[in-house]
Design a protein that fits this description.
Blueprint lengths: L1 H10 L55 E3 L6 E3 L29 E2 L2 E5 L12 E2 L9 E4 L11 E5 L14 E3 L4 E2 L2 H6 L4 E3 L13 E5 L9 E4 L12 E5 L3 H5 L6 E3 L4 E2 L2 H6 L4 E4 L19 E2 L9 E4 L11 E5 L14 E3 L4 E2 L2 H6 L4 E3 L13 E5 L9 E4 L12 E5 L5 H4 L6 E3 L4 E2 L2 H6 L4 E4 L3
Antiparallel strand pairs: 1-2, 3-4, 5-7, 6-7, 8-9, 8-10, 11-13, 12-13, 14-15, 14-16, 17-19, 18-19, 20-21, 20-22, 23-25, 24-25, 26-27, 26-28
């Protein structure tokens, strides 16, 4: 009797399977591991498979909400204590197989977490985790979790970063990790940007309007823009970047200090400062010894300059508006060739050469940095003082000389401009005293005096 009782107790949770070929398996008992012999004629002993060793059927199509991934092992456990899945054994959660080789949770449709994606049945498509966009296909970028703007994170490859998503214009604003405001999440994805939080940015001013189409190089972009690679990419050779508005330095001071490492290996206060330097962002956080400028993949994005000789022959070194000081850093800008085809709209600016121009484009046409936006305080000098390009003074009319672009002292490699020679020194006395060093090594009171002596200007300040 004791033996029979023991067998009955052990058999209570067992699974019995008939071994006869013409009999379907019949669940008689649900089991904990013991085996019993069939007493059916013509059958052999068969063994039950314990449920905790078997793969539960629902594991092969477990949606994200049905998994809890424990950080210790990253194994995936279903939340099995629901009516449709039966009761969990006491203190035991039957494990599912990890959904992919990287042991990541399966994909799911966030709008319908009950609907498993077809890829959750075991294909490799679920493994979409990434460190940067180079881990993704060319139609995707590496998007991090909302609020994850930290260094050394893991993201997920997401369609976007190509300006081709066809987003709606519904307003549900989000603030990106680039401290830029987007009308909705889809538009942020369009530009390959991870979302910091769902709301207007605390510091408004930077928006998706700062982008002006895709590019492979800065020459594809309009003046005042540069070709910025996607976040954590430092080249546009394999994937387009975006023509991105270059901010003024002061634009970045009001933004939070979220340090980034730029593609030239320098740590900047925030992504805005990286854009001011016309750089891509290699990663968030400070640069380390392993970060070097060699990662930038080409000099086209690095458009900072000390003088025009640092720029291509189609550009000149333009400094920030109001920066007419010595030892400044400018930005290579299309111009200085009298070929920009500017319109004649009147929005006057006063150049650092103390000359008045009808608009900024015309000043750029002559390779001039803007001092301020308005008529010059001391009128009289205008763009009409120029009379075409030249390589030497013999190409200019009487009363003109061939003046090199600012910061250049030769016209061997680049044209200068036939420039009107002031009639007398008195023409220059009424102009402000902004010392310049001329190409013959003399300090003059201002650029007008340099022109009176038919000289180019080597740099601002005393020689």
């Amino acid at each position: 009797m004791k033996l029979a009782a023991l067998l009955t107790a052990l058999a209570a949770p067992l699974l019995f399977v008939s071994a006869a070929a013409d009999e379907p398996p019949v669940v008689l008992l649900r089991g904990s591991g013991a085996a019993i012999a069939s007493d059916a004629e013509g059958t052999e002993v068969s063994f039950g498979i314990p449920e905790f060793l078997a793969q539960p059927e629902y594991c092969t199509k477990s949606c994200y909400r049905d998994c809890s991934c424990y950080s210790g092992s990253n194994d995936c456990y279903p939340k099995c204590c629901t009516k449709n899945k039966g009761n969990c054994p006491n203190n035991h959660m039957p494990p599912c197989e990890p959904p992919n080789e990287n042991r990541n949770p399966p994909n799911f449709d966030s709008s319908d977490p009950n609907s498993c994606s077809s890829s959750d049945s075991g294909g490799g498509d679920r493994d979409s985790r990434c460190s940067d966009s180079s881990d993704c296909t060319s139609s995707q970028y590496c998007k991090f979790d909302t609020g994850d703007c930290e260094a050394d994170s893991k993201g997920r490859c997401t369609d976007g970063g190509r300006d081709d998503k066809g987003c709606t214009r519904n307003i549900a604003r989000v603030c990106g990790c680039d401290q830029r405001e987007y009308d909705n999440e889809c538009i942020a994805e369009n530009y390959g940007v991870t979302i910091d939080y769902e709301d207007d940015c605390d510091d408004a001013g930077r928006t998706a309007r700062d982008f002006d189409g895709t590019c492979r190089r800065s020459s594809d972009c309009s003046s005042g823009y540069y070709c910025k690679p996607l976040f954590e990419e430092c080249s546009t050779e394999d994937r387009d970047g975006f023509c991105t508005l270059i901010p003024n330095a002061n634009d970045c001071n009001n933004l939070p200090s979220d340090k980034v490492c730029t593609c030239d290996g320098k740590t900047e206060q925030n992504e805005c400062r990286a854009e001011y330097e016309s750089q891509g962002v290699k990663h968030r956080g400070e640069c380390s010894g392993s970060d070097s400028s060699s990662d930038s993949g080409g000099g086209d994005r690095d458009s900072r300059c000390s003088d025009t000789s640092d720029c291509t022959s189609s550009q000149y070194c333009k400094f920030d508006t109001g920066d007419c000081e010595p030892d400044s850093k400018g930005r290579c800008t299309d111009g200085g060739r009298d070929d920009k085809g500017c319109n004649r709209n009147i929005a006057r600016v006063c150049g650092c050469d103390q000359r008045e121009y009808d608009n900024e484009c015309i000043a750029e046409n002559y390779g001039v940095t803007i001092d301020y936006e308005d008529d010059c305080d001391d009128a009289g000098r205008t763009a009409r003082d120029f009379d075409g390009t030249c390589r030497h003074g013999g190409e200019c009319g009487s009363g003109y000389y061939c003046k090199p672009l600012f910061g250049e002292c030769s016209t061997n490699d680049r044209d200068g401009f036939c420039t009107l020679i002031p009639n007398s020194k008195d023409d220059c006395k009424k102009l402000p005293n902004d010392n310049v060093c001329t190409c013959d090594g003399k300090t003059e009171k201002n650029e007008c005096r340099a022109e009176y002596d038919s000289q180019g200007v080597k740099h601002r300040g005393e020689c």
